[in-house]
Amino acid sequence: LSELRRDPITGRTVIIAPERLRPMSPPVVAIGGDACPFCEGQEAIAGREILAWYTPEHRVHGRGWRVRVVPNRLPALRVESHYGDPRDSLFHTLGGLGAHEVIIESPDHHASWSTMKPEDLWLTLWAWRERMRDLRRDIRLKSFLVVKNVGAAAGATLDHPHSQLVALPFVPQHLEEEMASARAAHLNTGACAFCTVIEREVGAETRVVTKDAQTIAFTPFASRVPFETWVMSRAHSAAFDEQTDETLGLVAERLSDTMRRLDVALGTPPHTVLLHTAPVGETDRASYHWHLEIIPRLTAESGLAWDGGIHINPVAPEDAARYLRDSLRS
Amino acid sequence: LSELRRDPITGRTVIIAPERLRPMSPPVVAIGGDACPFCEGQEAIAGREILAWYTPEHRVHGRGWRVRVVPNRLPALRVESHYGDPRDSLFHTLGGLGAHEVIIESPDHHASWSTMKPEDLWLTLWAWRERMRDLRRDIRLKSFLVVKNVGAAAGATLDHPHSQLVALPFVPQHLEEEMASARAAHLNTGACAFCTVIEREVGAETRVVTKDAQTIAFTPFASRVPFETWVMSRAHSAAFDEQTDETLGLVAERLSDTMRRLDVALGTPPHTVLLHTAPVGETDRASYHWHLEIIPRLTAESGLAWDGGIHINPVAPEDAARYLRDSLRS
Q1: Chain A residues with CB-CB distance to B300 below 8 A
Q2: A57: how many CB neighbours lie within 10 A of its CB?
Q3: What's the whole-number mean pLDDT along residues A202-229?
Q4: What SS3 class is residue B7?
Q5: Are A291 and A232 in contact (CB under 8 A)?
Q6: Contact B168, B77 (CB under 8 A)
Q7: How far apart, in whole angstroms, are the C-alpha atoms of residue B51 and residue B134?
Q8: Greater model confidence, A43 or A25
Q9: Contact status, residue B105 vs residue B117, Cβ threshold 8 Å
Q10: CB-based contact (8 Å) between B117 and chain A?
Q11: Which of the residues A304, A311, A319, A322 would you substitute to probe the B interface, choosing the one with the greatest number of B C-beta atoms within 10 Å?
């Protein structure tokens, strides 16, 4: 069974999950149908349905779903685990409590966020939100990570469109640090740092990819990799699971357009999408602002940047934004 | 010219270096000789010699070196730059001041740390130390990063054995955090956290790969990836550039043996080696302990772990250590 281990020096928590051991560099399943556990017809293989959206008239024997959530086949964390008490103050081990779910984003093996209709992409955001609303009732769970890896270079082992939701019994260090920094900025200026950045970006326009009154896609000032792009809802809000259907619809449209631009500009790049959202029960609602980070995975990361080191980015975000603006006639 | 940009929300600093733009996924030069700028005979192409170790009897027309330091051909930072003052409190930009050097570790294109004699590997550690001792006289430089990337999956673009030294005009966030955490542990217990960990590891033996009275190689308790291995000098010391020739010799032997074990166990894996050393002028000498982290790059990193997120490691460090212990008859 997996364990949560805290590094005795840095305090960072790592999940040691021997159950997830599988052959190194597993092939990405490039063809759909019977070979892919996430395709329609393979529901029994994909696993127990935790949540799904069906088109009623097409619902026959488990088919007819448009988005479907199942447990990860090799879960890093389980809700059946005990978190327990650490017995050793230096080598701090806790049980692998949490949840690790897979969101199968479409029955179509070849769908992608850039080719899906925005209303189909909306279903994925809906599934993320509904699962968070359900999981947060388990008071042992403190934070959520959502990740979408596309392409082998981004660590994906299956190419059927999917994302992963991880619920953790603690707040991970990188989120705690981001929140602490945002809190300090808020104390300093009285404003949400994310809102201030959006306002400045909208004013300057140089790093804006596209925007309207509700949402924005932009390349951040200190982009870590070429074409890093953030998609945000402009209205201040700390937590993703508090968003309305309507807001998710607007974000889905912005995401869909952004992914199309990235595909045109970079030739369907391998990429990671990360959702950053406030921890469960966070009482400071004023300083944090949920957002989506799209990270193209164009080159192997140098050891210099590995695990939060120094990123050397050869493409200025102003150039990337211009390129993305020009990549589609809008 | 390159810029240092501070992220307005997280405070992390990124180097935006348009000069380093080159074709994506450049090929690793797999053959030596004229095709490789780092091979003997190509000194004019490799660049101005900053430092080298010559065997006097073999020194002819720039040849006969055993280790050689040159400026990075596409430097992310330059000592000729100005650090300057930020004009914008939100979007904080500074000049690309610093140094970015390449240590060519051997004239032999096919050498590696696992096949080099320990006394040849020592020359690399010697070159790192000598360059740091020289660069630290520039009071604008505050910290050093040393990285060795081996294999395309680790971000290497040349396969001739080499490492990179980066001198920064600030202390990067990940080093500051590691130091803050070690400082807190020291305040708490009165001991260096690294020394305490070594003592416990030596006592337990389960995560020790090899050790003697002066040095140790072990797989850390919260290993982030399979077969992560740290190599340390056991004597407490904060800064790499204060090490004696003799200590570097002992560390070179431990490193050479460890790399042989990793090569046998994992089949010459792509990997990154990182040197962590205290910033220049750090006055707290008691809480930090310099060390080397060897990070095998066996699989593409999931977006979950990207840039300091949550690592899910399917190989327990106890299993990795046992495997490495058994991989060579010692």
Answers
A1: 152-155, 297, 300
A2: 7
A3: 97
A4: coil
A5: yes
A6: yes
A7: 10
A8: A43
A9: no
A10: no
A11: A304
The answer to whether A99 and A135 are in contact (CB under 8 A) is: yes
Secondary structure (DSSP) of B138-201 = STT--EEEEEEEESGGGT-SB-SSEEEEEEESS--HHHHHHHHHHHHHHHHHSS-HHHHHHHHH
From CA B321, how far away is CA B233, in angstroms rounded?
A: 18
Provide the residue type at B175 as one letter: L
pLDDT at A26 over 60: no
Radius of gyration for chain A, computed over Cα atoms and rounded to the nearest angstrom? 20
Q: Is B311 left (phi over 0), alpha (psi -120 to 50) or beta?
A: beta
Give the C-alpha separation, A103 to A131, whole Å. 10
Q: Which residues of B230-266 are buried (b: 16+ CB within 10 A; e: fewer)?
A: bbbbbebbbbbbebeeebbbbbbbbbbbbbbbbbebb
CB contact set of B142 (below 8 Å; sequence gap of 6+): B168, B169, B170, B171, B279, B280, B281
Residues 166-205 (A) with a CB less than 8 A from some CB of B: 166, 168, 172-174, 177-178, 181-182, 185, 193-194, 196-197, 200
Contact B190, B174 (CB under 8 A): no
Report the b/e string of B173-183 with b at 16+ CB within 10 A.
bbbebbbebbe
Residue A55, Cα to own-chain centre: how many angstroms? 26
CB count in 10 Å sphere of residue A115: 17
DSSP H or E segment with residue B295: strand B291-296
- Compute CA A301 distance to the chain's CA centroid, rounded to the nearest angstrom: 19
Query: Sign (positive/negative) of CA torsion B125, B131, B136, B141?
Result: negative
ipTM: 0.94
Distance CA A263, CA A328 (A): 10
pLDDT band, very low/low/confident/very high, at A24 (cuts 50, 70, 90): low
Q: Which residues of chain B have pLDDT under 70?
A: 22-34, 330
**pTM score:** 0.95
Using the beta-carbon criterion (under 8 Å), do B221 and A7 form an inter-chain contact? yes
